[in-house]
Amino acid sequence: MASNPPAPEAPFKPSDTFAYGAGRTDEGPFEEWNPTADSLRPVRGRHRVSKQRGGGLARSSTVLGVGVIAAVGAGGMASAQTGKPPVSISVPDLPNVGSLLSEEETPQGSSTPLSSIGMTTADTEQGAADAGEALRARIMAQVEQQQDQAETKAAAEAVAAAEKQAADAAAKAEKEARAKAEAAKKKAEEEAAKKAEAERLAELAKQYALPTSSYTLSSTFGQAGAYWSSGYHTGLDFAAPTGTLLKAVHTGTITSAGYDGSYGYKTVLTLDDGTELWYAHQSSISVSVGQKVNTGDVIGRVGATGNVTGAHLHLEVHPGGSTSGIDPLAWLQGKGLSV
């Protein structure tokens, strides 16, 4: 294969200008290259350069153009913020970048201007001039929306709290009213019961009478002392002058009348319900066994017979004829009598 002899070296001369596509004077000397089949055969194992396709240069120019525009836009924004005038920059397209990328890997260019990125139709209609103003408008709208939601929530919570407070107050008032009504009802029932009991006792008082008059209570039931053989007093003592009349407390029958040791002269009046009334220390007895008497009938007189220290009536009450007695004062009061 024929080859051309090397060209003579040219003296180096620097150039002050550079034009795209023009030859450079600082390079050389060059040797002419005639390709052969062997030199064109691809080398096994080495990376292949993808085939340059139509439009690659345009696509690469678009990609780089977008990047340059972004850089220029950023520079312009910075210049606007610092107050310096913008600088005009002109960058030519690079023709061989597209040959390094395959058709599948070549990014598609965007015709959307940088200043309108992120803007919606609504933003455009509202007069937003660029993406920053649109973003600011959107942020302010979100802030206002969140503030409205917070205010709505706070208002709802306040209304709920007020309703709860009102419900609690109503429930409390209802509870107090119900308590007052129940207390008033209970008081009315108690008063009615007291009135009924007073009426009952008044009716009983018409049927019962005190055993004597002009008296003084000298000893009460259960009182302890050495005067009584049991160690305590078993009845109620009505101190009165000797000869004071003794009366039947209620209608009944005389079941015992006579002298009974430490009791002296004693009369036993048995009522219709079986309760026995013992009249002791009498000076005289005016009734006999088996005699029927009515309330207020005279059955004897006050005396000082038996184990005594002075004239008085010793009265005992034995329900159902039991040997142990109960408090005569409480029994008489239960019959409506004021002792």
Automatic annotation (TrEMBL):
Residues 1-11 have a biased composition (Pro residues). Residues 1-57, 77-119 are annotated as: Disordered. Its EC number is 3.4.-.-. Pfam families: Peptidase_M23. GO terms for molecular function: hydrolase activity. Keywords: Coiled coil, Hydrolase. Residues 159-207 form a coiled coil. Gene3D superfamilies: Glucose Permease (Domain IIA). It comes from the Bacteria. Residues 232-322 form the M23ase beta-sheet core domain. Signal peptide: none annotated. Residues 107-119 have a biased composition (Polar residues). PANTHER family: MUREIN HYDROLASE ACTIVATOR ENVC, PEPTIDASE-RELATED. This is M23 family metallopeptidase. The lineage of its organism: Bacteria, Bacillati, Actinomycetota, Actinomycetes, Kitasatosporales.
